[in-house]
Design goal:
about 210 residues; alpha/beta; 8 helices; binds flavin mononucleotide
């Protein structure tokens, strides 16, 4: 009697860090969420926007007719990477009442996906993939004022839509100027972990 080897597809989650600090509070929350994902049995990869060498979109419009961007920089491997992932955790601090500029430029370069989806109407993802692809948004702000997350959230919702990730859940923490260090607030790290774990569990069931 022979054996059949059934390939097990391990789900993959990308953690996208928008903070320039690779060991700051945002990074710590993201890492805890990714630990939750891993503990649920999925693979993770962290993409640090600050470590990438790329320019902002220059509206050369190459992507209007092609499945990529003509600008040859560190964004090139991102297009394939974001196609093959199963879900995304995006973590960022608030800067000037929105997301950091480099993270925004990263998102703008996904005009490649926008053109395919909305202009040429030849999206990169099947219905099956869309059922899988979720986005978890982790965001922290120094201030404790109303609407501090409003601008960032609108931008992230648009980005998730463009890359075909459903806005699945969020962890928004304000008043970081008072909190200072998340490491001494295990309850905040635990929240990030729980949301990551829930995402990983969902992916394994789907
Ligand atoms: C350039 C800059 C701009 C900021 N602008 C805001 C802001 O408009 N509103 C706010 O609530 N916090 C603002 N902050 C505070 C950060 O959101 C806060 O310090 C956060 O904890 C930083 O996270 P990180 O250390 O993980 O990068 C700003 C911080 C910087 C460095």
């Amino acid at each position: 009697m022979g054996f059949f080897i059934v390939p097990i597809m391990v789900r993959k989650v990308i953690g996208l860090l928008g903070s320039p600090l690779i060991d700051g509070n945002t990074a710590k929350l993201l890492e805890r969420a990714l630990q939750g994902v891993r503990d649920a049995g999925c693979d993770t990869e962290t993409v640090v926007v600050a470590n990438l060498d790329f320019q902002a979109c220059m509206e050369m419009m190459f992507c209007k007719e092609h499945d990529t961007c003509i600008m040859d920089d560190d964004m090139q491997p991102m297009y394939g990477k974001f196609m093959s992932m199963d879900s995304l955790i995006l973590a960022t601090p608030i800067m000037t009442m929105g997301i950091p500029g480099k993270l925004k430029s990263f998102m703008d370069r996904f005009q490649v996906y926008f053109m395919a989806k909305y202009v040429r109407k030849t999206p990169f993802f099947s219905k099956e993939q869309k059922k899988m692809r979720k986005g978890l948004f982790i965001c922290i702000a120094g201030m404790n004022i109303p609407d501090v997350f409003t601008g960032a959230k609108r931008t992230v919702q648009a980005f998730f839509d463009i890359i075909d990730c459903q806005y699945w859940d969020e962890l928004l923490i304000n008043d970081m100027d008072t909190i200072q260090n998340v490491s001494v607030h295990p309850e905040l790290l635990d929240k990030a972990y729980a949301k990551g774990f829930a995402l990983g569990e969902f992916l394994n069931k789907t």
